[in-house]
Amino acid sequence: MLRTALKNPALIAKDEAKHTWRVSSGSAGVLGMLEIRQDAPPTTAYLMLGERCSRNCAFCTQARESRAQTAALSRVIWPGFPREEVIEAVGRAFREGKIVRACFQVTISRGYLEGAEKAISELAQHCPVPICASVVPRSPDDVAALLAAGAERVTIALDAACERVYLETKSGSWTETIALLELCAKLYPGRIGTHLIVGLGETEREIIERIQHMSDLGVSVGLFSFTPVSGTALAGRHPPELGKYRRVQLARWLVVNGLVRAEQFEYDEQTEALSGYGLPVARLRVLLADGEAFRTAGCPGCNRPYYNERPGGAMYNYPRPLTAEEAANEIGSLVRELS
User: What 3-state DSSP class applies to 208?
Assistant: First the structure.
């Protein structure tokens, strides 16, 4: 081991926690802070700030009532390290071309926005790595402060595709979050992102129409698969069937690249499952040939290896270029559904 992580963040004293940043285990490996084997190293340094979140999202390990270990986010473990060491390691890895971006995941806890602003500023002053922050701002002024501190973009996560699912699985206000996204997209064009999770109870039509809405606003959409984690309220729910995820994943890729609009898609009248993409099959084969549609979607340079997957299991988001065989298999599976 190149460096030993600090003790479990749950045990870190509060004054000590102020000087500690949590780092995803994969990122810590790339940064040279942990020695681990990785077949698909992260191309972004994923960092987490804050204590247990004050909100209570049903799928989140950091939720207020979650019984999952404090060091986890989704199925990834995030050990803590002194912030000065993390800053130095991120700068070194960026200069060496090992990472192309840094991303702060910020829980809602006391002083979280001020803490995020300070962390972004400290990292931005040390090196020119592009920085994004996934955070819950209170107003456009909070977003402006984070951007002014050095963030390239700010992600305001919807997670749920519609108000019905939001009320079932999230904390906070759907109406206020949508309004904030719409306003910030106008004020800071090209610098706002969101997250959507497939498998929280939405129909395929609902999430695809939300992707189109966000795309029309100029908001980048990071697509995730629901991942059940022990200790969370939704631990007993199954992840989405891979075919469903693939249909939505391809729809997102077509929409954000301006190749088809959501209203051109076809859906099953009863289930609202996607049944057609508004393009001939031969055209789809050509567009999908390189496999890019099946890769991780989000900010540029974000590959989130094994965030939704287990090694050897179903690959929802490929964190690397697909082999020719993988691409052919994925295309074949999608095309067969259209036959």
Answer: helix
**Among 67, 112, 83, which residue's Cα sits nearest to residue 22?**
83
3-state secondary structure of 242: helix
Alpha carbon distance 71, 78 (integer Å) = 5
Is the CB of residue 6 less than 8 Å from the CB of residue 82?
yes
* Rounded-to-integer distance, Cα 313 and Cα 3, Å: 30
Give pLDDT tens digits for 180-223: 999 999 999 999 999 999 999 999 999 999 999 999 999 999 99
- Percent of the chain whose pLDDT exceeds 90: 81
Helix 174-187 to helix 204-217 angle (10° resolution) is 30
Q: What's the pLDDT tens digit per position in 106-139?
A: 999 999 999 999 999 999 999 999 999 999 999 9
**Locus of tokens 């501190």:** 149
Return all residues near 317 (Cβ < 8 A) that are at least 6 apart. Answer: 223, 224, 225, 249, 294, 295, 296, 297, 303, 304, 307, 308, 309
Cβ neighbours of 272 (radius 10 Å):
16
Query: Angle at which helices 242-256 and 204-217 pack, to 10 degrees?
Result: 20
Instruction: State both tokens at 313.
Output: 């299991």
Please count the helices (runs of H) and the strands (runs of E) in the chain. 11, 12
Rg (CA), the chain: 20
Q: Where are the domains of the chain?
A: 1-155
Q: Does domain 1-155 have CATH number 1.10.1060?
A: no
Q: What pTM does this model have? A: 0.92
63-70's contacts with Cβ under 8 Å and 24+ in sequence apart are 63/232, 63/233, 65/233, 66/231, 66/232, 66/233, 67/230, 67/231, 67/232, 68/229, 68/230, 68/231, 68/232, 69/8, 69/10, 69/231, 70/8, 70/9, 70/10
